[in-house]
Design brief:
150 residues, alpha/beta, Rossmann fold, 5-stranded parallel sheet, globular
Length: 150
């Protein structure tokens, strides 16, 4: 078990907001192989993500995540809209949000920075590089950083 007292005694809750089945599968595989106990939930669109985060409807018992991994190119409500709603909500704004997207547009980077995203990562096209990026997210955010309490 990792020495970070923040994570040593509890399950780490992660919310992946992503609609690409291949990317979901790869992220799940990396986190499944983690030495840390984690629960990775997936929201397939921005509306579902906000329902999970606000514990609405069928998600009334959903755990608040310790970390959010957010794609920008989502159906129903895009990632910028989701990020804006998270950061405007007093009960959600302290949850770290990692942008993991195919977009390398300067305006997306600037907008997410203005909205207080914790970091912006462009998804590599190469499979091995993608896995390496997801592992680096896991290592940094779950093993090094002290996450805020739920």
């Amino acid at each position: 078990m990792h020495l970070n007292g923040n994570l040593a005694a509890k399950m780490v809750e992660i919310l992946l907001i992503e609609d690409n089945p291949g990317d979901i599968r790869l992220v799940k595989e990396v986190f499944k192989d983690s030495k840390l106990h984690n629960n990775l939930r997936v929201a397939l669109d921005g509306e579902e993500a906000m329902k999970m985060l606000r514990q609405e409807g069928e998600y009334f018992k959903a755990q608040r995540p310790d970390l959010i991994i957010l794609d920008l190119n989502l159906p129903k409500k895009n990632g910028i809209e989701v990020l804006r709603e998270i950061k405007e909500d007093k009960s959600l704004k302290c949850i770290p949000v990692v942008i993991l997207t195919t977009s390398n547009a300067e305006e997306d980077l600037e907008e997410t920075c203005k909205l207080d995203a914790n970091c912006y990562i462009t998804k590599p096209v190469d499979l091995d590089e993608f896995i390496k990026v997801v592992k680096s997210i896991q290592n940094f955010w779950l093993e090094i950083v002290k996450l805020p309490p739920r």
